[in-house]
Amino acid sequence: VIPVEGLKSPEERLQPFAWFQKMRKESPVSFDAKRNSWDLFRYDDILAVLKDPAAFSSVRPQQGPVLLGSILGMDPPKHHQMRNIVSKAFTPRSIAELEPRITEIMGELIAQTEGKTEIDLLQSISIPLPVIVIAELLGVPAADRQLFKDWSDRIAESVEDDSEAAIQKFLADKEKVRRELDDYFMKVTLERRKQPEDDLITKLVQAEVDGEKLTDEEIMEFCILLLGAGNETTTNLITNAVRIFMEEPSLQEKLRQQPELMKGAIEEVLRYYSPILAMNRYATKDVEIGGKQVKKGDLVVTWIGSANRDEEKFPDADRFIVDRTPNAHLAFGQGIHFCLGAPLARLEALIALPLILAHFHDMRLPEGTKLEAIPSTFVYGVKELPVQFTPAAY
Ligand code: HEM
Predict the structure, then answer these.
(1) How far is the CA of 270 from the centre of ligand 1 (A)?
(2) What's the average model confidence in pLDDT over 114-142?
(3) ipTM of the predicted structure?
(4) Phi (first) and psi of residue 219, to 5 degrees
(5) Which atom of ligand 1 is nearest to the CA of 225?
(6) Quick check: CB of 228 below 6 Å from ligand 1?
(7) Hey, which of 50, 108, 241, 284 would disulfide with 269, CB 3.0 to 4.6 Å?
(8) Nearest CA to 129 among 357, 352, 374?
(9) Euclidean distance between CA atoms 350 and 129, whole angstroms
């Protein structure tokens, strides 16, 4: 947990883009001896790494107490096999069927803001929405919803500082959450084996490819991955969208008048304020990147948050262009690990944002607000997003 040079202070983490730009220009492939890490900043270099899983593995050399030990951290052929099975349970069609329910949940969340003219967007909407959706998708009973939310909050917590005590506490907390989640999902998996229901865990229990099925442990891993990979990222997509709507207020009326622009606007939010800034890979052999010699076993960090601002790929990269085309951002990754939840995240944003615009007019940051970034260098978002608004007349 050694700090990343350009992202040490809260201010740098809120606006990492100046550092990204400097690194793309001055040192696009650089080695940080303190972290023992290669950092890549240019779009083309990053794309090449993500598309070459044979040379750049997703498997951590030493497995620590990590939460995301599922397909995210596997290589072919195991990755391919597992991804095939889980994709069967997680198809774009089964996601599209969630639309009416997501709309209903949004309606309930918005109804709870009635009478208010200021909310914290995270607490009111962008945290609960994905948590409720994932919980229902998995088949978590409504009575366990709060339990579930506490777990996902605890998964998302970052280390407080880089002191030894804070790191030890962080690791112990993660292990404790992990044990609680293991027990919980093991129990549900066993129940679904006995008594199938209409939910994702049952689909995972039943899914089969070439006679292969998932074991109880693999199902458990996958459920925990969804919780860890799907919630905070989607929260940040919705929050980051509203943040830019307030930074560029003309977007609000524009998107209300031209709702057909929303799909592209969401892609531009993904590019401009990418919810995930970086991913790790490990070189499986000595390999050259941008004239630099990377050694077998070296950690290679792909800063997709920087790739998405690369002027070589995106003209006027630091401008939010609502209808930017083409927009081949890397916010969901690329290649074999491309985000399995992308259709779900896009759908949630596509339902949530028009409803937010419809109910909250003239959204603005309360005067004097100082936004504070989440204390993480891999996840990009703010801790709170206070929004003052004029409630729409019904
Ligand atoms: C993988 C981003 C939402 C499930 C990934 C990766 C990225 C990403 C960058 C690739 C990681 C890598 O290459 O190492 C995002 C963003 C999201 C989002 C920005 C929201 C805006 C979700 C949701 C789910 C999900 C809602 C599920 C409910 C997964 C899974 C993988 C993954 C299972 C692993 C795929 C594999 O290894 O084959 N995501 N994600 N994500 N994501 Fe997402």
Answers:
(1) 13
(2) 92
(3) 0.99
(4) -65, -45
(5) 33
(6) no
(7) 241
(8) 352
(9) 13
Tokens for 169? 């506490």
CA of 380 to the centre of ligand 1 (A): 14
16 Cβ closer than 6 Å to some ligand 1 atom: no
Confirm if 305 and 16 have CB atoms less than 8 A apart: yes
Q: Whose CA is nearest to atom 12 of ligand 1?
A: 337
Domain spans in the chain, listed from the N-terminal domain onward: 5-53+67-359+367-387
355-394 pLDDT tens trace? 999 999 999 999 999 999 988 889 999 999 999 999 997 5
How far is the centre of ligand 1, averaged over its atoms, from the C-alpha of 338 (Å)?
7
Q: Which residue, judged by its Cα, is nearest atom 1 of ligand 1?
A: 339
Q: 124: Cβ below 6 Å to ligand 1?
A: no
Counting other chains too, the contacts that 363-372 makes at CB distance below 8 Å and 24 or more residues apart are 363/242, 363/245, 363/246, 363/249, 363/252, 363/387, 363/388, 363/389, 364/246, 364/249, 364/388, 364/389, 365/246, 366/118, 371/14, 371/243, 372/10, 372/14
> pLDDT tens digits, residue range 197-221?
989 999 999 988 788 888 888 888 8
Q: Residue 278: which residues within 8 A CB-CB, separation 6 or more? A: 301, 302, 303, 304, 305, 377, 378
**For the chain, what is the radius of gyration of the CA atoms?**
21
Pocket test for ligand 1, best of 67, 232, 269, 332 (most atoms within 8 A of CB): 332
The response to whether residue 381 sits with its C-beta less than 6 Å from ligand 1 reads no
Q: Note the CATH number of domain 5-53+67-359+367-387.
A: 1.10.630.10
